[in-house]
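Continuing from the previous page...

OK, I double-checked the sequence for O-antigen ligase-related domain-containing protein against my notes and this is the correct one:
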Amino acid sequence: MIVQLFSAISCSLFVLGNLLFTLFLLTLFLQTRYPLCCTYQYIDYGIPFVYLSDIALLLFLLAVAVNPSRRESFWRWLSGRRELYLAAFLFCLAAGISNIGALSKVAAWYRWFKIIELFLVSALAGWWISDDQKRKMRVWLIMGWGLLAPCLIAIGEFILGRSLGFQFLGEWRFNVRTPGISTFFWRGKTWLRPYSTFPHPNVLGGILSLIIPAIYLFRKQLLAGWAVRFLVVILAATLVLTFSRTAWISCFTLTFLGYVYLKHKPQNWPKYLLIFLLVSLLVFFLPSPVRERLLSVLSTDSLSLVRRWELAKFAFGLIKKRPLFGVGCNQFPFWMEKYGRISGTGPNWQPVHNLWLLITAENGLVGFLVFVGFFFRLVCSLLRRAGTEQVYLLIILFGFLMTSFWDHYWWTSQEGMMFLGVVLGFSLVFARSYG
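Thanks. Re-ran it with the corrected sequence; updated structure tokens here:
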């Protein structure tokens, strides 16, 4: 009787665990959050928050921990990926050392725990996906449906020029006239770039630029019907409205690479490079606000580019000052506030808009080399297996690489870090799928 009861409880926890991880994927892009302390902090990056997705992940972890068969399965899977926890241990060790001299201890150790969570998500996502073959493809669709509500909010914000009142989902309070809000000018009118539940339109755009190509690449395995087509239309429309240039370029490049691979199995890359360049010329026939926004990438007097360059110079200065272990996790904005200056009106205490410079400035050359080594080994493992799914993942990782040189949200925002964790976990599965 006791054995039967224990078996029933274990089965229930297994089903509950699946539901909880699905809930984590669905809430991953909501910014529903609760401050732990330091709400007085005027630099938002320094306030520790607990997110709804954190709670779902913790419950899933507990469901796995109390289920003996699931717990053993997880450890068995993880033991075959020693590079993951070795990289996690070394990076977190280096980051802990860098935090000793942090200007804001609370912000530093909060980001340190979030980095641990990033590697934990990689491990849990990889194990959960590998435990059931159908989940390998379904995970992209679940995250896509999780983006539906934020995308509908974004479309509503663009039309009305203000927030819609969904603060319980993590929406900010703003309108098109709020100082410092991101906008664009077209036909004599200022238009809002929608934020939805994200800290900036670029974050929403960057995630969409990877999700849309992923759904396109895996569409056959997803058995995409009219509902999935409707979802992709909403996601694509929202991507356009974010007016994120790097996200547009990334999405177009990844989709093009996927199309070439799927349709032609390329053997003559110069030919397809020419096609890519010719298609790129279509930018001159796009609607004027989109065309002007894309062409402004080439504008050297753009305030956005000036600020990025000034932040990069400050990052190089921090690297020179503390080359081995950096200034500490999540400390770049605090050093900017104390010692930095940036063009434009108002305070701009933000991280450098380059993921690799940010990691090097905050965690030093030691942290940089550990993370790059892990990423490089993962890419090489995917290249060695050279199956269709591996190529798909390489395309997605290339998109991550493209956007990482122009922004920091994969490392500083909850949505960016958790999404990166899922992608890394997915890649770990396919890096070991053959051989």
